[in-house]
Amino acid sequence: MLGSGHATMDFPKERVEAITSRGAVVVDDFVELRAFGGMNLPTRETFPGRASRTEDEPWVKRLGLRGLEGMIEVRRSLWEAWRLAPDPPPAVLPNFLRDQGWAASMESFVDALANGASPPHATLEDARSASAVADAAERSRASGQVERVT
Fold first, then answer.
1. Residue ranges per domain, the chain?
2. Residue 5 contacts residue 13 (beta carbons within 8 Å)
3. For the chain, which residues score pLDDT lower than 70?
């Protein structure tokens, strides 16, 4: 996973690559997924995100239609507006544009509280698996060797 904030605002900030012996999946800035190797996934899928204000709907629609290319366009237009402002505020891309799964998670949490429903997302087993992956990554970093996760 790559996370960066040390470039211009129009440079994509987050990228996740998962590579296996059967194929690979790349997620860019939480707005586009590309699959390689015939893993029964669409070769390219885009995610629109969510807008908290009506005036932001066109940006969100652009992300849904254009994916990473749309995100770069949005970032570039915000960056240019920021650079040209006489007294620019901090250059920040509103996170609400990229859903990142938070909205669905919050909706499930509220539903669980209100109705006693079980959240359909992460389970205790998912948490254990994520911890096992993080532990293996740390062991691999320390030893320089490939670590298997079981």
1. 2-119, 122-150
2. yes
3. 1-10, 88-103, 119-122
